[in-house]
Amino acid sequence: MEEKLVINEMEETSGLNFVEQEIKKDLEEGKNGGRLNTRFPPEPNGYLHIGHAKAIIMDFGSAEKFGGTCNLRFDDTNPQKEDTEYVESIMRDIKWLGYDWEDRLYYASDYFPQLYDFAIRLIKEGKAYVDEQTSEQIAAQKGTPTEPGKNSPFRDRPIEENLDLFQKMNNGDFEEGSMVLRAKIDMANSNMHFRDPIIYRIIKTPHWRTGDKWKVYPMYDFAHGQSDFFEGVTHSICTLEFVPHRPLYEYFVKELADESYCPRQIEFNRLNLTYTVMSKRKLLQLVKEGLVRGWDDPRMPTLCGLRRRGYTPSAIKDFVNRIGYTKYEALNHIELLEHSVREDLNKSATRVSAVVNPVKLIITNYPEDKTEMMEMDNNPENPIEGKHEMPFSRELWIERDDFMENPPKKFFRLSPDKEVRLKGAYIIKCTGLKKNDAGEIEEIYAEYDPETRSGLPGSDRKVKGTLHWVSVPTAVNVEVRDYDRLFSVENPSAEEGDFRDLLNPDSLIIRENVKLEPWGAEKAQVGDHFQFTRLGYYTVDPDSKPDHLVFNKTIGLKDTWAKEMKKI
Ligand code: ATP
Ligand code: MG
What we know:
Elements: H1 18-28, E1 37-40, H2 50-65, E2 69-74, H3 84-96, E3 105-107, H4 112-124, E4 128-131, H5 135-140, H6 159-171, E5 180-183, E6 198-202, E7 216-218, H7 220-231, E8 235-239, H8 246-256, E9 264-268, H9 280-288, H10 303-309, H11 313-323, H12 334-348, E10 350-352, E11 354-355, E12 358-363, E13 372-377, E14 387-392, E15 395-399, E16 419-422, E17 427-435, E18 441-449, E19 466-467, E20 470-471, E21 476-483, E22 508-516, H13 518-523, E23 529-532, E24 536-540, E25 550-556, H14 560-567
Parallel strand pairs: 1-2, 2-3, 8-9, 10-23, 12-18, 16-19, 21-25
Antiparallel strand pairs: 4-5, 5-6, 6-7, 11-22, 12-15, 13-14, 15-20, 16-17, 17-18, 21-22, 23-24, 24-25
């Protein structure tokens, strides 16, 4: 046994989730020679989403924790739906999460020869047969969990005939859907998966790796356990829907092997997120039909979408850690994910000033040609990050929402004759305003108090409100994309009817005229995270051009999860 695999007996078990506790026990008992080898087995038929992240964190994370290894294996057994575009995106996303399969990159298609030989062996042993019924006929004979199924009329076909037909299936002599190979197990078994499962079907679409070499392709249940076995996987961790498949998984491995080793399948609950769908089929539909702007649309639950939105790997890991791994299905609240994102970005995002809905403020007693440089914290959570300078001048942009002509009682922002502090600068008092013909406010006038400059002695006079601002002459116009929930109902998958009717029509708002302070514009690189003071977290989008920066709103500052938690 390698030394790194020895687990300290004193180590706390309570910090481990139930899967890790099982792994720990197996290692302590010396199973598999003390070896730990997990795998992450995506089918390359779509982009990874945050649900996959939960599986990845389990598979790679548990291997990491106990000094084992984790394979990446593409479960590429259906050429009709798979593509290299997906393979590449999956690898990129796993790396982004911070995991590495090193030299352990595998493909189920590498095992097609062994799986085919195994099928031949089962036929020769009378344990598999070619069924020429339609899929409807086969389904009709399946029975129910309480009623046994009916035998196929082809069940007792002579071995020689089965062999001949299966080989011809693979030569391309028959049409897709005309026949399948089934394992001959038990049509009365209380586990429906044992009722002569289909193990091979005809597919004539060329495979992206093996071309037209094969015309028959193994079904999931006939490929997965065996692939685990070929790779020496010790713990095959998957989601709960595979619980009823586990006996069949073990059945095939035992048929295949003459030794005692069998990978151990352990199942945990899927991640489901409110206001989101997680089905790859539905996500593909949103992309194909142009209902979102692509797989990496920042409203998508895909990892590339979340990345573009500004979510970080550490926030995703923190969220997965908080929801945990259990044996019960659950619906996870998106607010908790957002809470993790806020916590992470609060530590790391650079603070800048931006005005998303600008109105002009003119400080009438401030000289026209004067500019002062005000010191602004780059991140008050992390003073090491220092400060930067922001120009202050007579004309400033402030948020339209920060002014009210006729405010209610508790409005502490700007209104006629009232004082506020301009963050990092002076206290001002509103002296008037100008409206256009349509009655909209065009300019707000104020006077500043020169004795109140932030940071100077005597500047500590208190006023209730503090507003952010950007100086007009140096402001940079940028585009901001504001996002809301992709779906307008909490659990779209539970609703009747077409899920597309449940899309939130206001999930994207584009703001073209946002004013950003010059230092922020100069510094911004694609993927950078910023906090726009008082507004939220924003991330620089890849659509940005040197003269046109685009920001995605990652998340607002108001933590609805923390608020909910306080109620409890
Ligand atoms: P399908 O099989 O329907 O195409 P899938 O989402 O299961 O879709 P896979 O590529 O088979 O996609 O998934 C790879 C791994 O990710 C599997 O082990 C699966 O259990 C896991 N996984 C998929 N969705 C989730 C989820 N929502 N939560 C946790 N794990 C998931
Ligand atoms: Mg799957």
